[in-house]
UniProtKB/TrEMBL annotation:
PANTHER family: MEMBRANE PROTEIN-RELATED. Signal peptide: none annotated. It comes from bioreactor metagenome. The chain crosses the membrane at residues 109-130, 150-167, 212-234. This is DUF1385 domain-containing protein. It holds the Pfam family DUF1385. The keyword Glycosyltransferase does not apply. Keywords: Membrane, Transmembrane, Transmembrane helix.
């Protein structure tokens, strides 16, 4: 069950990633996964308190045509993050929880299928059904219905995240998410990379996938309007088919905003507040894990200026 809830988070939020400094990441069970220029780095806190790290080569799926084309690259990037994230999630469970047996292909298929079914049910079918009820009760016009559907999708997402955040084990994942953000923020700023110093940085990151939500809601209002009206099955199906387009367009908007300076920061400011739901303040032990993961992904120790001067 813990794996399923954590995998649902992978489906709903991409890890932080920066175009200028090729580092990104996401939280897993008792650990952090980081993406460096040439490798992935995974670090997990073992039951005995030690940190176990491992790495594997990173060749981005969007490094060749046609996968690096605009819109397409957004969808491909998210599929890549979910694929690698599930691998890291399974590995972190083995290390942190002491699960000796690796997840089988059948178990992986069932977990993915249940997660996708939950996403479709919660974030597509439920808002659509509720907006249909509103049309019957209030006689909304098509535009009003689409806006309401998008807003309901956002409300359902917030309620879902807030709900699972009450579970202690998921709160622990959210603490590692905060540690990941603080570590990347410190690294991008050129700060001295010690757990004590990293702890002073914000747990909010401008390119976190949580900020993706408001953009997806806004874009879905426009794109889903193209599907027109029809039976409930037609509308659910059309939204599933159009979802990759919504995700790809939203990805490009976030990428564009990250390069737009002050204007981009102002545009994304409302979305950043959602990260207070998916992150918690980490302790120094969790930051140590995030730092170890970043060093593993970079393939080097992050030498402190004081050490360089000695």
């Amino acid at each position: 069950m813990k794996r399923l809830l954590a995998f649902l988070m992978l489906l709903l939020a991409e890890g932080s990633e920066d175009r200028r400094i090729p580092v990104g990441g996401q939280a897993v069970i008792e650990g952090v996964l980081m993406k460096g220029p040439a490798r992935w780095g995974l670090s997990v806190r073992k039951p005995d308190g030690m940190i176990e790290s491992e790495s594997w080569n990173n060749r981005s799926w969007t490094s060749s045509m046609p996968w690096k084309l605009p819109v397409i690259r957004g969808v491909v990037t998210m599929v890549e993050m979910m694929t690698v994230g599930f691998r890291a999630l399974d590995k972190s469970a083995q290390i942190a929880v002491g699960e000796e047996e690796k997840i089988t292909a059948k178990e992986m298929f069932i977990t993915v299928a249940v997660a996708i079914f939950a996403v479709v049910g919660l974030f597509i079918a439920l808002p659509l059904w509720l907006s249909d009820l509103a049309v019957k009760a209030w006689g909304l016009a098509p535009l009003g219905k689409n806006v309401l559907e998008g807003c309901l999708r956002g409300v359902v997402f917030i309620a879902y995240v807030a709900g699972i955040g009450l579970w202690s084990e998921i709160r622990q994942v959210f603490r590692y998410h905060g540690a990941e953000h603080k570590t990347i923020n410190a690294y991008e700023s050129g700060a001295v990379m010690t757990p004590e110093n990293i702890r002073n940085f914000s747990r909010i990151h401008p390119r976190c996938g949580t900020s993706f939500l408001l953009i997806v809601v806004a874009v879905s209002i426009v794109v889903f309007s193209l599907a027109g009206s029809g039976s409930i099955l037609w509308r659910i199906g059309s939204r599933i088919v159009l979802l990759p387009l919504v995700m790809g367009l939203s990805y490009e908007i976030i990428k564009g905003a990250s390069c737009a300076g002050l204007a981009g920061r102002v545009l994304m400011a409302p979305a950043l507040s959602f990260q207070y739901l998916t992150t918690r303040e980490p302790d120094e032990r969790q930051i140590e894990v995030a730092l170890a993961s970043l060093e593993t992904a970079l393939g080097r120790k992050l030498v402190m200026p004081a050490e360089e001067s000695e």
